[in-house]
Write a structure and sequence with these properties.
CATH superfamily: Aldolase class I
Largest sheet: 8 strands, parallel
CATH class: Alpha Beta
Structural class: alpha/beta
Strand order of the largest sheet: 1-8-7-6-5-4-3-2
CATH architecture: Alpha-Beta Barrel
CATH topology: TIM Barrel
Shape: globular
Distance between the termini: 11 Å
Radius of gyration: 16 Å
Length: 218
C-alpha cells in the first residue's frame, strides 16, 4: 500500500490570500496542494484559471500542484495549465472527448496524468485507462461546491478500483475528494485509497497539524 498523502484543496482557502494559504500547507511539511478548476459548464461553479497557478509559483510555492480539471472540454486547456506549473493534471471521464489522447498529451507536456469519475459513474468506465494513468480520483461528493457530506456508498467503488490495481500490479495513486476528514479518510484508507483531498475540514480546522499528522499515520 502506498504511503498516505494529504492534499489540501486551496478552493477552501482564503481567496484574497491564496499564496498565504499555500504557504500554510507547506509550513506543515505537506508536499501536495489540490487545485479545483471549474468551468461553470461541467459543474455549476467557476473557480480558477492557469493564472492562479502562475501566481502561486511566482510567489514561491514549490508544492506539488494536483490540478483537477472539471471542464466540459479539457483538451484545449491542457497546455496552459502545464505551462502554468501543474505537476499532475486530472480530467473527467464523463464528457465526450478522446480521453486517452488527452492523457497522452498531458504526459507529453511533462505532467503526470489522472482520470476522475463522479459518484454516479461506474468504476468500469475508467478500467481501460488504468494502465496509462498516474492517479485515479474517485469523487465522494457530486463536484461543484465544497462542504458536502461524504457519500459512504463510494467505498465499494474505491475498493473495486483498488482491487484492479492490485490484480494488475499497477502503480497509480487512488485519490478521494469530497467530505474527507479524519474519520472518512480512515474509511477510505481501509477501502484502498492513499491520497486524500481535504478542503473545509483542513482550512476550517483549528488544529491543522494534528489533522496532517493523523492522516500521515494512516
Amino acid at each position: 500500500m502506498l504511503p498516505a498523502i494529504l492534499a489540501p484543496s486551496i478552493l477552501a482557502g482564503d481567496h484574497a490570500h491564496l499564496a498565504a494559504s499555500a504557504a500554510d500547507v507547506a509550513a506543515l511539511g505537506l508536499t501536495w496542494i489540490h487545485l479545483d478548476i471549474m468551468d461553470g459548464r461541467f459543474v455549476p461553479n467557476l473557480t480558477f484559471g492557469p493564472g492562479t497557478l502562475q501566481a502561486l509559483r511566482r510567489h514561491g510555492s514549490k508544492l506539488f500542484f494536483d490540478t483537477h480539471l472539471m471542464l466540459a472540454e479539457p483538451a484545449p486547456h491542457i497546455e496552459a495549465f502545464a505551462k502554468a506549473g501543474a505537476n499532475l493534471i486530472s480530467i473527467h471521464i464523463e464528457p465526450d472527448y478522446d480521453h486517452r489522447a488527452t492523457l497522452e498529451r498531458i504526459r507529453a507536456l511533462g505532467c503526470q496524468c489522472g482520470i476522475v469519475l463522479n459518484p454516479g459513474t461506474p468504476a468500469r468506465s475508467v478500467a481501460p485507462l488504468l494502465p496509462v494513468v498516474d492517479l485515479v480520483l474517485v469523487m465522494t461528493v457530486q463536484p461543484g461546491f465544497g462542504g458536502q457530506p461524504f457519500r459512504r456508498d463510494m467505498l465499494t467503488k474505491i475498493a473495486e478500483i483498488d482491487g484492479w490495481r492490485r490484480a494488475q500490479n499497477l502503480p497509480f495513486r487512488l485519490e478521494v475528494d469530497g467530505g474527507i476528514g479524519l474519520a472518512t479518510a480512515t474509511e477510505c484508507r481501509q477501502a484502498g485509497a492513499d491520497t486524500f483531498v481535504v478542503g473545509t475540514s483542513f482550512f476550517g480546522s483549528k488544529d491543522r497539524p494534528a489533522l496532517a499528522a493523523a492522516v500521515a499515520r494512516l
